[in-house]
Amino acid sequence: MQIRVGFEMAYQFPQPTPMILALSVHYSRASDLLRPDYLVTSPSVPITAYRDLFGNWCSRIVAPQGRFVLSTDALVNDTGAPDVVAPWATQTPVEQLPESTLVYLVGSRYCETDQLSEIAWQRFGSSPTGWARVQAICDFVHRHIEFGYQHARRTRTALDAYKEGHGVCRDYAHLAIAFCRCMNIPARYCTGYLGDVGTEPPYGTMDFAGWFEAYLGDRWYTFDARNNTPRIGRVLIARGRDACDVALSTTFGPNTLEGFKVWADEVSAGLPVDAQAKSDLRSTNPLLGAN
């Protein structure tokens, strides 16, 4: 199957302003790109690119004064297979974990393992280890948090989400990640495109999505505490310790986000690919993250 993915973000800047963007499809999906996700700016400005500490492809620009639009429109090959489910996956003892996973075992900006550790062990300490424990965490978080875009707040941490009981998909991911780490399971935050492929209508407003990966056995597996069911057509953009590491857009100066739309649509053979799902404007802060 093929999926058309892309976005358009319109800003208003009172002065020339540097920006860092993490909006490119992850290198692990590079071979799946049938039409590259070239970053387009209007007006045109020079773009430089680099790999961050987590291997994500990032761009640096200086936005000009006035209205400034960022966009991309790509076509991605996808297997059409749902997320892998591996109930046999075991939990690896901490002393045997690869060094590359250890950074995902400790607390981070949005995942306060020190404050959630006792809660985690009380709730999940008696559950089976491995896949079953991560699934038990997802089941709890899925039930515990009420989803709603009106609840979006960029400062909400995992502990806040636990106490408040509502949020958006990044909050589900943060709480599940924190609980996994408390239970000695490495977990990392993911952001990317996730459309409605394989789901029943009515469809919600399209946005960038947040989920997480847990390290079990000898590999990383995808988990999604918000949807809590295997999904088809995830297109990864970036991974990090939490949403702070993978902010889609970081601006170094005042600005107003005037427009924001995202699409991730399955392309049917023989049909035009000009349908786009539009997203509501939900945030005007400079640290734009997945909801």
Structural write-up:
- The protein folds into two domains: 2-79 and 246-268, Immunoglobulin-like (Sandwich), CATH 2.60.40.2250; 94-244, C8orf32 fold.
- Helices cover 16% and strands 32% of the residues.
- The protein is built from four helices and 16 strands.
- Strands 1, 3, 4, 7 and 15 form a five-stranded antiparallel beta sheet that branches.
- A hairpin with a 5-residue loop joins strand 5 and strand 6 (57-63).
- The two termini are 26 Å apart.
- Residues 272-291 have low confidence and may be disordered.
Whole-number count of domains: 2
Q: How would you sum up the major sheet?
A: 5 strands, antiparallel
Question: Mean pLDDT, rounded to whole units?
Answer: 92
The unreliable regions are 272-291
Element-by-element helix/strand order: EEEEEEEHHEHEHEEEEEEE
Report the radius of gyration as a whole number of Å.
19 Å
CATH fold category name of the largest domain: C8orf32 fold
Q: How many strands in all?
A: 16
Report the helical percentage.
Answer: 10-25%
End-to-end gap: 26 Å
Count of helical stretches: 4
Q: From the coordinates shown, what is the CATH architecture of the largest domain?
A: Roll
CATH class of the largest domain: Alpha Beta
Structural class of the secondary structure composition?
A: alpha+beta
Tell the overall outline: globular
Beta-strand content bin: 25-35%
